[in-house]
Amino acid sequence: MCGIFAYVNHLVERDRNYIINTLLTGLSRLEYRGYDSAGIACDGDGENQIKELTIDYSKIFIVHVGIAHTRWATHGVPTEFNSHPHRSDPTAQFTVVHNGIITNYKELRLVLQKFGYVFESDTDTECIAKLAKYFYDTQKKVTGNTMTFPALVKAVCKELDGAFALLFKSSHYPQEIVAAKRGSPLLIGVKSSKQLKIDFLEVGDDQIPHVDKDDLDPVDTPAIIRTRSRSFIGDNGVVLPIEYILASDASAIIEHTKKVIMLEDDDVAHIAEGDLHIHRIRRNDEMPTLRPIQTLEAELAQIQKGKYAHFMSKEIFEQPESVINTMRGRLNFDDYTVTLGGLRSQLTNIRRSRRIIFSACGTSFHSCLAVKSTFSELCEMPISVELSSSFLDEKLPVFRDDVCVFLSQSGETKDTLLALQYCKERGALCVGVTNTVGSSISRETHCGVHINAGPEISVASTKAYTSQFIALTLIALQISSNSARVQARRNEIIDGLYKLTDDIKKTLALDQQLKQIAIENYKNAQNFILLGRGYQSATCLEGALKIKEVTYIHAEGILAGELKHGPLALIDESMPMILVMTKDRHYGVQLCINLGYRKCVETSDCAGWETTRNLFRNRQVIAS
User: Locate the Glutamine amidotransferase type-2 domain: which residues (predicted)?
Assistant: First the structure.
């Protein structure tokens, strides 16, 4: 996964320092999408200037296009040559940033090498830049004319297999940018000091040329109604001072503007002379011909660290509020009712289904595991939890009477989207649970639930995990609301949710105590084993994942019942262990585990505090 960002200013004076800082800030907002390498491209001071360490930061640009990229390395190790943006040739006639994976890049690379193109990197993206130059040179050689920038990009995209969100910048098309999308997210933010005159942007045909300013004379009866148009040109054909921000995620746009356009698959967006036009790579009569200008609901404070040193710390301590936001307006504690508006239209079909299949990756997968037993208990139907990354490999049988639930914080997880497409093709009812309004999963599913956790900037997910757990629990509670047999258990769960915020605050109050234990006992640890059972098995898996993500230390979450079936061989005096124990039906079994080693931390709820402390006098015991 990568993050792409672009900033375009037209008739708005910005110095190079502002432009570069805007690009770098945009990348910092997308850091959760990758941070092993990054790069930016902006205009230089000279015609032949490609790379210069000493530049004039004070130079003013009235019109400028800058692009940026941050990445997780997939094709090619993290090096300067493999970092984006990628160029078509040493003079950088075409420059590209890319989020996604091109599956036929090896074939394209071989063809381009036969035409004499020399590659500088190991990435799939460099093929795209060189393919653009090939089409440009070929068209000019054969016809003597050049293609328009969007037509050129469409020709390139038609040769690509796989997923992509692309931003193109070219010296042949100065002060223009073209964006293209298929299978990867891409949004366009629109910022203007004037009020926008339109609510929808129409998708143009291939034959529609770029509008020339000289042809923009006012007419008595406009052909297109005022609230929808193919351009942002102002009244009387006057081009407005305007800025555009293109990004993989709304979190990189919200500090600039709340007005955004979400591109659909196979959209090609062209920005030139301050105007935006949207075209299609391939015509699809079923695709809407309008792209609404939407308003983001997030606030700027939500993407700033505030008093915290890191976004992860901020998001951990936001959990008392984020879980309330997930339940607000949905759960009535007085009459034990749950109302999820996003499921209302399909609730009867969900209750009649044969089974429920959950599909997710990483932290989202663990949240599905955490609620699996709750769904089995309340909904009284078969429940399956599948990794999206192996969903297609296993060719899981999916039928029309199945309900498939897809979880993703961003709503753009590629493996989960592929699993979603697989299930839709087989006629299953698809439900999306995401934290991003307008994301691909939220648009492709038949119904869904927004977890309302607020923007999550940190790479390591925290508050999204707890909010996903709550949202899924609410789904189970609503499905089972008409079942008399489970009402007692259902009410018990709702009472527990009522106390949840206070319990989270008590746990967060242990922050300094936990830090001290870690510093005194585990600062040199190279391995961790986490043990849990029942509801806490998913907690151990998620805890191990967090240790790996944040510390780069090996950690393994193990079901306590499996300890003596192999993993016990790993345990000796030097192996730190974390045992998660809560006062549930597995509590007695957990107490019977004879570890016999000192390097162990037990976490227990307050009800089990005294018992646990007396049994394990030589170990650290944390009560929450």
Answer: 2-274
- 3 state SS of 430: strand
| CATH number, domain 511-623 | 3.40.50.10490
Assess contact for 163 and 183: CB atoms under 8 A: yes
- DSSP 8-class letter at 5: E
Place of tokens 């969900």: 350
| Residue 12, helix vs strand vs coil | strand
Match 């707890």 to its residue by tokens: 466
Reply yes or no: is the peptide bond before residue 85 cis, omega within 30 of 0: yes
Residue 494: helix, strand or coil by DSSP? helix
Q: What is the pLDDT of residue 414?
A: 87
Domain pair 305-508 / 511-623, same fold: yes
Residue (of 18, 25, 293, 19) closest to 175 by Cα position: 19
* Cβ atoms of 583 and 562 closer than 8 Å: no
What stretch of H or E contains 63? strand 60-71
CA 400 – CA 143 distance, rounded (Å): 53
> Burial of 575 by CB count in 10 Å (0-12 exposed, 13-18 middle, 19+ buried)?
middle
**CATH 2.60.40.10 fits domain 305-508:** no
Distance CA 363, CA 366 (A): 5
Overall pTM > 0.85: no
CA 457 vs CA 116, 299, 302, 462: distances in Å: 43, 13, 9, 10
Each domain of the chain, given as residue ranges in start order, spans 2-302, 305-508, 511-623
Residue 251's pLDDT is: 86
Residue 441 CA to residue 409 CA, distance in Å, equals 10
220 Cβ partners below 8 Å, 6+ apart? none
- The C-alpha atoms of residue 42 and residue 19 are separated, in whole angstroms, by 8
Locate 435 and state its tokens: 């934290």
Mean pLDDT in runs of 10 for the chain (624 residues)? Answer: 92 94 93 84 70 78 95 77 91 94 93 94 94 95 92 95 94 96 92 84 61 41 48 65 94 92 93 92 75 82 79 94 95 95 95 97 97 96 96 93 96 92 96 90 94 88 96 97 95 96 94 90 89 89 94 91 82 83 60 48 53 44 50
Integer Cα distance of 68 and 511 in angstroms:
37
Percent above pLDDT 70 for the chain: 86
Long-range contacts of 219-224 (CB under 8 A, 24+ apart): none
Residue with tokens 């090498």: 113
Tell me the CA end-to-end span of the chain in Å, nearest whole number. 36
For residue 73, the model assigns a pLDDT of: 74
| Secondary element (H or E) of residue 25 | helix 16-29
Contact call for residues 32 and 412 (beta carbons, < 8 A)? no
Asked if 181 and 153 count as a contact pair (C-beta separation under 8 A), the reply is no
**Catalytic residue positions, numbered:** 2
Q: What is the pLDDT of residue 595?
A: 46
Which fold, 2-302?
Answer: Glutamine Phosphoribosylpyrophosphate, subunit 1, domain 1 (3.60.20)
* Separation between Cα atoms, residue 325 and residue 456, nearest integer Å: 14
Residue 528, strand partner residues: 555
Give the whole-angstrom CA distance, residue 166 versus residue 64.
18
Q: Residue 527 — φ and ψ, nearest 5°? A: -145, 155
DSSP 391: H
Residue 85 to residue 76: CA distance in whole angstroms: 14
